[in-house]
Amino acid sequence: MLSIRGKIKMTFDFSDKVKNLKPSAIREIFKSLTDPSVISFAAGNPSPLSFPVEKLRLLADEIFETEPSKALQYGITEGYLPLRNQVSERLKSKFSIGKDFDEVIITSGGQQGIDLACKVLCNEGDTVICENPSFIGALNAFRSYGVNLKGIDAGIDGINPEELEKVLKEDKRVKLIYLIPTFQNPSGITTSLEKRKAILEIAKKYGVVILEDNPYGELRFAGRDVPTIKSMDDCGIVLYCGSFSKILSSGMRVGFVCGHSELIKKIVVVKQTNDVHTNQFFQMLCSKFIDRYGLDEHIKSINELYGRNCACMLSSLDENIPSSVSYTRPEGGLFLWVTLPRSTDMDDFIKRTVDAKIAVVPGSTFMPDPSKKTSSFRLNYSMPTEEEIKKGISILAQVIKSAGIN
Amino acid sequence: MLSIRGKIKMTFDFSDKVKNLKPSAIREIFKSLTDPSVISFAAGNPSPLSFPVEKLRLLADEIFETEPSKALQYGITEGYLPLRNQVSERLKSKFSIGKDFDEVIITSGGQQGIDLACKVLCNEGDTVICENPSFIGALNAFRSYGVNLKGIDAGIDGINPEELEKVLKEDKRVKLIYLIPTFQNPSGITTSLEKRKAILEIAKKYGVVILEDNPYGELRFAGRDVPTIKSMDDCGIVLYCGSFSKILSSGMRVGFVCGHSELIKKIVVVKQTNDVHTNQFFQMLCSKFIDRYGLDEHIKSINELYGRNCACMLSSLDENIPSSVSYTRPEGGLFLWVTLPRSTDMDDFIKRTVDAKIAVVPGSTFMPDPSKKTSSFRLNYSMPTEEEIKKGISILAQVIKSAGIN
Fold this sequence. Notes:
Two copies of one chain form a homodimer.
Chain A lengths: L1 E3 L2 E3 L6 H4 L5 H7 L7 E2 L12 H14 L1 H5 L8 H15 L6 E6 L1 H13 L5 E6 L3 H8 L4 E8 L2 E2 L1 H10 L3 E6 L13 H14 L2 E5 L24 E6 L11 E6 H15 L4 H14 L2 H25 L5 E2 L7 E5 L6 H10 L2 E2 L1 E2 L13 E5 L5 H17 L4
Parallel strand pairs in A: 3-14, 5-6, 5-8, 8-9, 9-10
Antiparallel strand pairs in A: 1-2, 4-11, 6-7, 10-11, 12-13, 13-16, 15-16
């Protein structure tokens, strides 16, 4: 606080952990998206076509009719019990997730699960291992607790287990290994079963918790399911974050964490100080939806849509993009990851996409170490229509050409 | 992590800041309230009669009809813009809150505003000054960031400004002064205008932010409004937390923070890592409610109910309780605060209330320093009916008598 000519000018002394925290670059990109002529591949949103509006409307009205006081009153921090039970039951029967020592807590979106896991396990100055690249929302959550991020390059089938062990051997302050093994954000890749097994064994050897973030796992439109790391967890070392954001509604902010009861108990105590509990009405709405309709049919229809869009984007890329440019071929999720030749001037390239009214998210956004050089960017295929995808990728091809890439 | 006879037993190494954090004692009391014959004065809940169910039902259906994609999709972290504008406008016109330098963010309940304020301003080992007693949810939020709590005894009209200055002079690590100046939780008292002015001047002198928590401010059923500290803030040193929990619905988790734009900007960045944004549907529902019906009429009806209940509780106490027992006479809010003779064995007394099937919250729950001796307890009058109040207070009088208090 400064006093200037009798007038006080406030300057705030922020805590060390948040002092240098910047808003997600994606948000800034979105601010430039008010121009309706821009074709955006920058989103992380589910398609609005994926929201089961009429069913939710009907069920919401039923809640107002039959249980309004429960839906509008304070609930318990652990979450609405019927929903917790449904989530546990579904994780178990469909994905073999959940041993006797595990419990489920309902969170305010998957994001809150990530945030609370870090708060509960990490002191300032501790280390969190992440994939390189990784989800910006998680990276910023970790940064907001003053931890150091250590990125490990993710190849086409996940991080290298030997590289993971090397980091764990050298850095005794690693408290968390954060992974999105299935349809990773931003890369769209899936970690192989072999690597999942190896990573789990190493985590056990060093006694470090794995935070398995799986918001996209059910969005598979090609290939075969790979077991989650959590499904192989026989001692409670894996904390599993899931979400309804990509399969029912993102705006409602309902997710969940499944993990060892000791860990969940502590997360409950901390969540209580954070937002008391997650929106009760929408917890009941999720529960009613599962009860009445189940999730499987609805998810199937989402996957048909995303499968079509992804195939359209891949064939447009195949047709238009020179062979010096590579890209992942996801079997599910929302994203694919394009890598330009290593020598590309990315600032110039991104400027060219903006001028051409194409929005993509530059790869540097997703780097645990933002100074790390990358010539990649992320494309989203859940939001645009097939027509927009075709048009947008053809413009992108022209931008690539204009940047001198052949 | 321990290996016992080949089986791994997980033991988690929690972060220093959350290691000793205990769940709110109130939650534990609630677990004993499954017995329907218990009369509970332990709640912090609004009355279910205060929820405008039919109006919300109508408006919710309108949202599903007209703007489902907006309501179910990701929103921006700052909050739904029409609601932010309505909150700003109402704070300004009705309570003279908000200068040019101020902004509003929508939070997931008032609790999240308190949590983020502490995260943004406090390092571990810093000090937060609180009233003695104070709101357990806030105290635990502060504790979860590893700060030290310094309680200042609150008299019948708030903390003593000289005492505040003394603490600020001695402790250079004070980063926040947390106050609930109006209808305080748990005590029901209101800080006088004179003290508010003095506290603000001292905060400015020492350059320490005041966190003014005002979830009950509109729940006045007697006496005259006292200006908030924020309304007198001419430099941005006061961060003001408000909530819709006690005037529309607590289960929906919608609150707000009004403060200096520099502080709000940082809170936005940190909220983004916490839960991305607050439930979008209910933000729109609040906005529509304000737009269609306004809040004033509805709040008036709540205050008639709480005024009746409080009067009933006070007259029951006046009739039944010996003069060695004192209690506050609130002009609004949800709570009053009963103080037994200093020599009372509180563990024994609370045990007697449990045996008599009366639930109250022991005063120690609300102490920044839980080892501080107190012979007080909190009574809630928003949840019980007048009949329950009369019956419960008469039982409480018997308990007091049985404990040898005359």
